[in-house]
Amino acid sequence: HLPDAAEGSAELTYGALIRGAREVASGLRQQSVGPGDTVAIMLPTGPEYFEAFLGVSLCGAIPVPLYPPSRPLLIEDPLRRQARILANASVSVLLSDDAVAPAARLLKADVPQLRASVTVAELRHEASGHLDLPAVHAASPALIQYSSGSTGHPKGVVLTHTQLLANIRAMGTAAAIVPQDVFVSWLPLYHDMGLIGGWLTSLYFGFLFVVMSPLAFLSRPSRWLRAVSDWGGTLSASPNFGYEFTTRHIGEDELDGLDLSSWRIACNGAEPVSAETIERFGERFGPFGFRRETMLPVYGLAETGVGLTFPPLGRGPRVDVVSRQELATSARAVPVEDGSATRAVVSCGRPLPGYAVRVVGAAGHELPERSEGRIEFTGPSATSGYFGDAAATKALFHGSWLDTGDIGYMASGELYLTGRAKDLVIRAGRNLHPEELEGALGDLDGVRRGGVAVFGVPDEVEGTERLVAVLETNISRDDETARADLRARVTATTVDVVGTPPDDVVLAPPGSVLKTPSGKVRR
Q1: Would you tell me how many other CB atoms lie within 10 Å of the CB of residue 82?
Q2: In the chain, N or C terminus with fewer CB closer than 10 Å?
């Protein structure tokens, strides 16, 4: 079911889905698309997206989901950024809509393999009445996933049908999924959490999938919770950002009659989970039936499909309060009483059935519990590598283990994520995690929340890194007093959070902090 405030709502049955998918497959065959070819899908959330994805699969080709431009008047720049992905994936046909297709045809100069840019309607028009479907093998690629930050150096994760199904089944077991479940989603379908965790999981287990576009959610976040209430939603998922955004941007007048008591699993993943966000969301919506044990902090990555670790159902979030000083200087997660020099780290649970997770040090040896290091995993859905990139594939594997690129620690068999290895700022021998500081600075008056980037710049003289904070603000450049006050508060907050002042504070106009298509800061 697809609720949309602008155009009413639409329902897509299994019968209509397969008919539409067969028409797309037939049209693609007329475009000479066959087994092993790659077809990019750049479509907004809607019935055509689902028909296109399955149509590509039916004709034996490999879907490559891509971010669709959100602003029709500014299409060419996003398309140019996607050209590297299209070239990397050797895409032969690009499926888009009427708004994108004309501009997309200009990409042929940058993507030599691109034979055509077509719409679903054009494929339907070309479809013939007879369709010979090629055999699809278990070991054939089911899709290629490009991470949202990979437009600079594209890395496409290849997942076979066997791997994709293994991950979906494992998540279904961990979530105790039944056919009576209802999944409510605003997540983009070009991203693994929305595509695999939401739609393909519902398709496999046969339960109702209620989906809206990300823009519908961002313009009015109450639509998400209202859909859970109206449809008796039992499952949903969001990055931590979505829970925080909803907590802050729903008015009291939008809560009348809201009933969230049907909600049994609210997955929180795709970025570090904030203990403060969990508490704020629970306090705000507890009076409307939301239970604390519904919140399920999870961890996963495209290289395993989407899911890797889940906490036990019904327990509620587990928060580990550790010494910030010990974590920064000795990479040890030492439990302490709550206080100003502590860091609250949320458990992401245990590995899914059939999977294993370990934490290793710089030499590649497994570390004992409560030692921070790089997270590695194995499992039945572990990718065999990146499409057409032997060097990146080689770097991904450490023997039979895959490097997630994330860091964290294990405690009592559960995984605690502390950051991205590549985003760590190493300053004066301290490991500083930008996510925590970005969240604190985003709470300051005068700073646009979500418009903060913290990162390190090498300091050749000192042999360490300079700590830089870029903050979006609406404060006028002419208001020197207000800007000086904000700088002082930024410095004080930075000292409170990470124990050291920033080297550079940049106050920038709105829109200066670059984001990936899924909303993550491009540090």
Answers
A1: 26
A2: N
SS3 293: helix
Q: What does each C-alpha distance from 39 to 53, 132, 450, 466 come to in angstroms?
A: 9, 19, 33, 43
State how far the Cα of 149 lies from the Cα of 520, in Å rounded to an integer: 8
Cα 297 to Cα 185, 232, 271, 294, 341: the distances in Å are: 17, 21, 10, 10, 24
- Tokens 């700073």 correspond to what residue? 447
Distances from the Cα of 488 to the Cα of 154, 433, 452, 465, angstroms: 39, 21, 16, 21
Q: Which of 225, 179, 190, 212 is nearest to 14 (CA)?
A: 179
Nearest in space to 158 (alpha carbons), one of 378, 394, 393:
393
**SS3 of residue 448 by DSSP:** coil
How many degrees, rounded to 5, is the angle at CA 427 between CA 398 and CA 327? 65
- Look at the block and give the residue holding tokens 């405030």: 5
pLDDT tens per residue across span 39-94: 999 998 999 999 999 999 999 999 999 887 665 545 565 566 678 888 899 999 99
- Residues 145 and 5: their CA atoms lie apart, in Å, by 30
Structure tokens at 98: 């009427």
Count, in order, helices (H) and strands (E) of the chain.
Answer: 16, 27
> Each residue of 103-146: pLDDT tens digit?
776 777 778 888 888 999 999 988 777 778 888 899 999 999 98
Tracing tokens 């032969």 back to the chain, one arrives at: 92
| Residues of the chain falling short of pLDDT 50 | 5-6, 73, 149-151
Cβ atoms of 242 and 222 closer than 8 Å: no
> How far is the C-alpha of 155 from the C-alpha of 153, rounded, in Å?
7
Q: In angstroms, rounded to a whole number, what is the distance separating the alpha carbons of residues 13 and 252?
A: 35
Query: Rounded to 5 degrees, what are φ and ψ at 27?
Result: -65, -35
Decide if 523 contacts 455 (C-beta within 8 A): yes
Predicted TM-score of the model (pTM) = 0.84
**Residue whose entry in the numeric block shows the structure tokens 């570390």:** 367
Q: CA quadruple 7, 183, 307, 411: dihedral positive or negative?
A: positive
The single residue listed with the structure tokens 């704020």 is 280
Total residues belonging to the chain? 523
Alpha carbons 203 and 205: distance in angstroms, whole number: 6
Tokens of 327: 């974590």
How far is residue 159's CA from residue 380's CA, in Å, rounded to a whole number? Answer: 11
